[in-house]
Amino acid sequence: xxxxxxxxxxxxxxxxxxxxxxxxxxxxxxxxxxxxxxxxxxxxxxxxxxxxxxxxxxxxxxxxxxxxxxxxxxxxxxxxxxxxxxxxxxxxxxxxxxxxxxxxxxxxxxxxxxxxxxxxxxxxxxx
Length: 127
Fold this sequence. Notes:
3-stranded antiparallel sheet, two-stranded antiparallel sheet
């Protein structure tokens, strides 16, 4: 669970999970552009999960990876659809079989599985 608390600055808030991350909107929407935007949090959740999952599974399987970079962007340009576009860059030279395994790992990370399911919203309280 994360908790979001507003600050004294217009629209700015901070995410508090024991560490504080500033969340804000862009200046053209009235914010101060001083923190990560809400949609960037979605992108970060998927990109970090893919990165961590890949490195963890590679370690278990004895695949040596020097550096892994994952990039995710949310494409909301098609009405009624949300497309998470992603890219993974690995500096190591890997054979075709290992690259296919990596592709499979990326497609099965826990956050991607969560985002792929039907999503519902349940209000638990409003004080």
